[in-house]
Amino acid sequence: MLLSVINTRLRDFYASFSDLCDSEDVDPEEIETILKQAGYHYDPDKNTFIQ
Question: Model-level pTM?
């Protein structure tokens, strides 16, 4: 669920993961840790989390 929400917001509203985190006031390390445990990492060229 988190992956879907983050990737949708990145696609629809934000130019980067840092923009999303700043705007939504969330801890980027916490999100990255959770998604890394599920096998995903952020690809800044694609502006999305991928496996």
Answer: 0.92
